[in-house]
Each structure stands twice: as structure tokens, then as C-alpha cells.
Specification:
Blueprint lengths: L1 H9 L4 H10 L4 H11 L2
Helix pairs in contact: 2-3
Length: about 40
């Protein structure tokens, strides 16, 4: 459910942030969280 929420949040992200999200989602959860944190700065 948490990843679905992240995906929903991604719908309002810029293409750049979406790209970072879709790249990170193929990596371990810890890396995903790190990538999203970095992208949200």
C-alpha cells in the first residue's frame, strides 16, 4: 500500500522526479527511499 501511495504522489511530480522514481523503484527499498528523499530536495 505504501508504494501505491508513492506512485500516486508521483503523478503530481515533474517528469524529472518521475524519472528518478521509476529508476529507483527497481532498486532495494532503502535505495528507493534515498532516491525519493534526494529528489524531493
Amino acid at each position: 500500500m505504501r508504494k501505491q501511495r508513492l506512485l500516486a504522489d508521483g503523478m503530481v511530480m515533474s517528469d524529472e522526479l518521475l524519472g528518478a522514481y521509476f529508476t529507483a523503484r527497481h532498486q532495494p527499498e532503502a535505495t528507493l527511499q534515498h532516491a525519493l528523499s534526494a529528489a524531493s530536495l
